[in-house]
């Protein structure tokens, strides 16, 4: 569609008034035209660069070959040789940027081959637009801006969100936003527009969210006299559309959020929607259907392409507190349709989340109390990952700062450089809205009128560990709050300064008092921070100064941006910046996966661990011993020389010492008052967590002032592929008697493709079929039975029986146990069979388990049960030992095995890499090998690598693909 796609609605937007693009354009143009005595542009100063020296000249560049393969079949997914990158960029970052962000057809001269080309393509668009619209005081200031921006990007100090790298400076529409919020009204035209708009956004690789609460419930009447369908029914169409577009080759999977208000009459149906579908997934999976994420049968299950959230009010939460009643109201009239017990509805939410991780929760009154534009409209929804919350039909472009880049020698946080980088990034982000294209005309108009930005950060978890702070501690939360407050204070102060040059956002005038009120709320929250050490004190002092200057500049000039900050997942861009941790997340585990330039991979202890040990005062010899222990064990418990009071510094999201769910909630609460938007984060809960535990998390999230919260209980979902975990090595000796640990069976699922035998049989004239599937490395794992001329009741009983047997086999119940129980069972039909090995059967069950024993059990076990083949019985009748028959077969098998290497070297079994710790392909698989169990994370649809959590999304370390927006 090219420029026509954007030009149509941009021209319309410019004709809008009084807060349309025309008003904003006039402000910028007049500012650019002003001469002496008028507004002056921004003055820029060098922080990272040297006058007269281009940033590229201070970098050592090297050429690398990028070849990315799919580990499952060895096929090459992507190949580009001779790409140019700084020598300090990791192999993983190089691979991801080359494959994801370089533009032009591979193998043609038009293809980008150097990071210089990529950065220049983006930066020059920002600089050119800034010059054109009067952002800079002089040409020299524009040059400084260009050099500083180039330096920061090349040195991985921050990154724009992915759409900037995809689109800016290309012939495609200049879409810079990753996050969109749509709207839908109670008309069929609006609902169909919703489907269309989501499709356009998904096609571009971004995500969208919306609130369906304006749609009438299924308990209300239409004007024609019929009953309304309700929002849940319309969710089916949108879900199918997202699934289709997702599979059409978009940059990444479609990501979407669906929100419903807690007072909507269909709220109970909405809450249970995905939990019911999860039950369907279990039933279909156990019946033999391929229900893995991306499996051929998963498409039959609905509502799997969206995150669902309930928007709760303070009124509802207070009713939960007091065990009171709560009214569900008609959408058109506001009349009470039904009255429910608030506590029961709240428990229904927690129960559904316990079963399938949905719905999440959004706290409406908190969100709108921090809303800078209430005169324009309420905030009703969020983007798919819940960090962007603003007006309907709006968008937000994101950028994230790499915090660890500002931790200097002596573990001192470089506040001055952090402040200057934040100024630089906010300036660039605002410029991007000036040249950006948008997928729909309403989104273009709202975004240009309110200019929402989303600056955030990554590597907080690594920064806390490196500075000796436990993630779940007052010190850790204090440092995180101070940094977040400083970032947002600088961002809004810079926004006010930009407003002084090119004018405030078009919607500012009608919302000025509300906006300034929210700024005062941020500043007041900053005053509540209680620093615990010298690092905190210096950052809080700097933040206090920034908020004071922000309020003063805002009073004078207004603000250029309605929103400034949030905390995004930082999935792909986190890998691009070589971050150890994403967004606000703690470290995933102490041992991680690293690709090697020469090929292959290795497991290493995170480099923040020795840095933290040094900060805590350990000597080099002690550090080496502790690191070696962690490398072998994956945790710090009982590490030689490590004091137990320091264990908490090394607590991670997963592993031996996992951070508690409330530890995650408390960290979110510490930084939320300093963010314009919200936080993309999922609170991970152990499998044994109860519904009451989830109720507590949701309730405490409200009490602590969060805007949104989502949970994930380990192993609650089944519709996703899990790779086999490595076996945990048994301890050599116990130092002291340990308390008895609960041993739980672990289910070993069959792969999607498995060897199987179909047996047709007849018992006393009753015919049937038996399908027996085995593991590739041998061993029965699944049995399904079908009897001829059976009624629906018997068919259901046989299906249920088959599922029960199959699941028990996968949990490790020996086949011998079932054979003992079911052979010689007597009921009709019984009698002659058509099987030469089993001439008579006392029942169908007797025949089935005798046949399974003959096909799958060794001779010695069968002999003890008296089950023999016709040949074995004949040998017995002739006085021969049937065991010799199997001994001869074993000798022949051994001879073939010994001769095989001479003829051709045996290829390693495909499953071996997943079992061998050294052959892990991602950090998640490293963790699995340490824990001895599988982790709930999907496999990447592009390269097959197990993904890792990034906020409320997942990111692939192999190729950079994400499950949401970043």
From TrEMBL:
UniProt region (Disordered), positions on chain: 723-743
UniProt entry keywords in alphabetical sequence: Cobalamin, Cobalt, Disulfide bond, DNA synthesis, Nucleotide-binding, Oxidoreductase
Limits of the TSCPD domain: 752-854
EC number: 1.17.4.1
Compositionally biased spans, kind Low complexity: 733-742
Species in which this protein is naturally found: Actinomadura macrotermitis
Protein name as catalogued: Vitamin B12-dependent ribonucleotide reductase
Gene Ontology MF annotations: cobalamin binding; cobalt ion binding; nucleotide binding; ribonucleoside-diphosphate reductase activity, thioredoxin disulfide as acceptor
PANTHER family in UniProt: RIBONUCLEOSIDE-DIPHOSPHATE REDUCTASE, VITAMIN B12-DEPENDENT RIBONUCLEOTIDE REDUCTASE
Domain annotation Ribonucleotide reductase large subunit C-terminal: ranges: 177-712
Catalysed reaction, written as an equation: a 2'-deoxyribonucleoside 5'-diphosphate + [thioredoxin]-disulfide + H2O = a ribonucleoside 5'-diphosphate + [thioredoxin]-dithiol
UniProt domain Ribonucleotide reductase class II vitamin B12-dependent N-terminal: residue ranges: 66-156
A Gene Ontology BP annotation from the UniProt entry: DNA biosynthetic process
Cofactor(s) for this UniProt protein: adenosylcob(III)alamin
UniProt cross-references to InterPro entries, sorted A to Z: RdRp_reductase_class-2 (IPR050862), RNR_2_N (IPR013678), RNR_lg_C (IPR000788), RNR_NrdJ/NrdZ (IPR013344), TSCPD_dom (IPR024434)
């Amino acid at each position: 569609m090219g420029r026509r796609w954007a030009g149509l609605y941009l021209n319309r937007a410019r004709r809008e008034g009084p807060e349309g693009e025309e008003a904003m354009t006039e402000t910028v143009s007049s500012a650019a035209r002003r001469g002496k005595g008028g507004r002056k542009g921004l003055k820029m100063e060098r922080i990272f660069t040297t006058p007269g020296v281009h940033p590229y000249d201070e970098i050592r560049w090297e050429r690398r070959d990028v070849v990315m393969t799919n580990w499952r079949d060895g096929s090459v997914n992507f190949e580009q040789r001779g790409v140019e990158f700084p020598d300090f960029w990791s192999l993983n970052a190089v691979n991801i940027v080359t494959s994801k962000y370089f533009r032009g057809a591979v193998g043609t001269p038009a293809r980008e081959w150097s990071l210089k080309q990529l950065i220049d393509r983006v930066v020059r668009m920002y600089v050119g637009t800034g010059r054109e619209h009067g952002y800079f005081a002089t040409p020299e200031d524009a040059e400084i801006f260009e050099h500083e921006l180039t330096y920061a990007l090349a040195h991985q100090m921050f990154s724009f969100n992915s759409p900037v790298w995809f689109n800016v400076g290309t012939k495609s529409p200049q879409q810079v936003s990753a996050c969109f919020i749509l709207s839908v009204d109670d008309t069929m035209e609006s609902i169909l527009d919703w489907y269309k708009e989501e499709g356009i956004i998904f096609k571009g690789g971004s995500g969208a969210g919306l609130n369906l609460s304006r749609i009438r419930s299924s308990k209300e009447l239409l004007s024609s006299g019929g009953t309304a369908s309700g929002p849940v029914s319309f969710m089916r169409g949108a879900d199918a559309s997202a699934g289709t577009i997702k599979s059409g080759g978009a940059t990444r999977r479609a990501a979407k959020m669906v929100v419903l208000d807690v007072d909507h009459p269909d709220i109970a149906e909405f809450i249970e929607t995905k939990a019911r579908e999860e039950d369907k997934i279990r039933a279909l999976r156990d019946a033999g259907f391929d229900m893995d994420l991306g499996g051929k049968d998963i498409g039959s299950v609905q509502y799997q392409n969206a995150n669902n959230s309930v928007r709760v009010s303070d009124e509802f939460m207070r009713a939960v507190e007091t065990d009171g009643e709560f009214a569900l109201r008609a959408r058109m009239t506001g009349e009470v349709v039904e009255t429910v017990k608030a506590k029961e509805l709240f428990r229904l939410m927690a129960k559904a989340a316990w079963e399938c991780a949905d719905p999440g929760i959004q706290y409406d009154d908190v969100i709108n109390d921090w809303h800078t534009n209430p005169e324009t409209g309420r905030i009703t929804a969020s983007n798919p990952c819940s960090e962007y919350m603003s007006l309907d039909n709006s968008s937000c472009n994101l950028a994230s700062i790499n915090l660890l880049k500002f931790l200097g020698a002596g573990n001192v946080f470089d506040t001055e450089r952090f402040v200057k980088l934040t100024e630089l990034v906010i300036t660039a982000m605002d410029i991007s809205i000036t040249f950006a294209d948008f997928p729909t005309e309403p989104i273009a108009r709202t975004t240009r009128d309110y200019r929402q930005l989303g600056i955030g950060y990554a590597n907080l978890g690594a920064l806390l560990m490196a500075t000796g702070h436990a993630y779940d501690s007052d010190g850790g939360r204090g440092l995180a709050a101070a940094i977040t407050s400083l970032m947002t204070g600088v961002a809004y102060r810079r926004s006010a300064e930009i407003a002084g040059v090119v004018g405030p956002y078009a919607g500012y005038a009608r919302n000025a008092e509300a906006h300034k009120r929210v700024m005062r709320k941020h500043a007041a929250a900053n005053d509540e921070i209680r620093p615990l050490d010298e690092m905190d004190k210096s950052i809080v002092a700097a933040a206090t100064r920034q908020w004071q200057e922000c309020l003063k500049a805002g009073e004078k000039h207004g603000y250029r941006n309605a929103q400034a900050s949030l905390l995004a997942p930082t999935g792909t861009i986190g890998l691009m910046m070589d971050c150890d941790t994403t967004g606000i997340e703690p470290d995933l585990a102490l041992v991680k996966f690293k690709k090697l330039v020469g090929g292959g991979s290795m497991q290493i202890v995170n480099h923040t661990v020795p840095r933290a040990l040094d900060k805590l005062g350990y000597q080099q010899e002690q550090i080496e011993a502790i690191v070696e222990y962690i490398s072998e064990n994956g945790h710090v418990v009982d590490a030689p020389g490590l004091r137990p009071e320091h264990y908490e510094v090394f607590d991670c999201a997963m592993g031996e010492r996992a951070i508690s769910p409330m530890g995650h909630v408390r960290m979110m609460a510490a930084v939320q008052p300093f963010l314009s938007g919200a936080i993309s984060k999922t609170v991970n809960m152990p499998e044994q967590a109860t519904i009451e535990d989830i109720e507590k998390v949701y309730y405490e999230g409200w009490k602590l002032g969060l805007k949104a919260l989502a949970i994930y209980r380990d192993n609650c979902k089944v519709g996703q592929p899990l790779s086999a975990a490595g076996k945990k090595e048994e301890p050599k000796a116990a130092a002291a008697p340990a308390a008895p640990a609960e041993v739980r069976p672990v289910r070993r699922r069959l792969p999607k493709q498995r060897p199987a035998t179909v047996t047709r049989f007849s018992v006393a004239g009753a015919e049937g079929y038996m399908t027996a599937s085995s593991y590739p490395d041998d061993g029965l794992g699944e049995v399904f039975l079908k009897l001829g001329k059976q009624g629906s009741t018997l068919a259901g009983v046989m299906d249920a029986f088959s599922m029960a047997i199959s699941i028990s086999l996968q949990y490790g119940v020996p086949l011998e146990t079932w054979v003992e129980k079911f052979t010689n069972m007597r009921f009709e039909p019984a009698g002659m069979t058509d099987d030469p090995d089993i001439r008579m059967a006392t029942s169908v069950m007797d025949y089935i388990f005798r046949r399974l024993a003959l096909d799958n059990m060794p001779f010695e076990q069968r002999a003890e049960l008296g089950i023999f083949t016709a040949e074995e019985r004949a040998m017995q009748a002739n006085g021969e030992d049937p065991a010799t028959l199997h001994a001869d077969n074993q000798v022949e098998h051994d001879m073939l095995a010994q001769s095989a290497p001479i003829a051709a070297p045996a290829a390693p079994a495909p499953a071996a890499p997943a079992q061998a710790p050294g052959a892990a392909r991602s950090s998640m698989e490293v963790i699995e090998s340490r824990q001895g169990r599988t982790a709930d994370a999907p496999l990447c649809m592009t390269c097959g690598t197990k993904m890792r959590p990034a906020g409320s999304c997942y990111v692939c370390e192999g190729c950079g693909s994400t499950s949401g927006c970043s």
